[in-house]
User: What shape does this take?
Amino acid sequence: MMSDKNCLFIAATLICLLLLPIGCGPSAKQTAGVETCKTPKPELEKVVVETKPEPEKVVETKPKPEKVVETKPEPEKAVVKLALNFKPNDVSTYKVITESRKSVSWEGPVSSKPKAFKGGETGDRSEITFTQQIKSVDEAGNATAQITIKKIKYLANIREGVAIDFDSSREKDEADPMNSLTGQSYSIKLTSAGQVVAVIDTRDALGAIKGDSASAKTARSLIGDELIQQRHSLPALPAPEKSSVSKGESWSTLKSFDFGMLGAKSYERVYKLARIEDSDKGKVVVAEMNAVPSVDKAAEQSPSGGFLSKLFDNTEKYTGRLTMNLTTGKVGEYREELKSEWLAVDPESAKKPDEEPAALRMKAFRLYQIEKID
Assistant: This one.
């Protein structure tokens, strides 16, 4: 998409350290001595005066009572357990939203845009509402849960054109192959830390989808093992051995994304327990997430797109937020989103003061959100 110009970005940084020497000199005090001359005085006649010693005055002093400073021990930080609490036959309703978008655009004079360049945005968004019924719980607190799909919304576009637009609540979409998923069930094994470790029995749901249309293929992918694991896993909870945390304490998890020609990238998602609140529905905790590129995983990333990524200046923001009811042991809401942007400016066009520099801008957006609605 870029011209054949040799793009080379030179970054220079100069650090100056100014030292201001400060000297301190000692001072001395001088004292002068004064001599006194004593002259002999004539002796006086001795007069004997009888004096009676006065009785000593006895002053009674009472010791002041010592001040007692009462010290109160600092209150211990409340420790809470961040883990899902499963109960057999319990039923909850959730809605999961996932979204993935990427776009590319040319900025600057139209005359400088390559003829073969095509911009636009491509992406998809799904909203799936489902019930989760706990069938059994093992000794470790992990559960087998049956998932039943209640509603689906799905939108996909390619270069600003709509490829699929489905909503199970619309009458016109009743005959769509994707509508076959409503009412279908499958099971998962879910840990108390919110991780899906197994997907069970999706055969009936897959068998209900007929045809080879784009909508039918998309419906099958929605109940594939990979997307099911992504949909029902909760990344915000710490590992079981680290599930006891207090206010202000942090924990972290790793997450990788593939940005196509720009290569893959890993992030360390750092969660911090921000506050513990009392509500009419029980004790609720709120954790905030801010992610940073993972240095430990940088060397393991795919080299694809490595050279291309060097031509771009990259900015990104990856944040999230968790609310969890400790009384019920259920998540109220979790949301995380990643916004990345890459900008490459043609250095030759940047030298022309009368023209807007030619530049290539690429964006990526990822969203995951789960919300308890019943």
Notes: The longest helix spans residues 214-222. The CA atoms of residues 22 and 232 lie 64 Å apart. The chain has four helices and 14 strands.
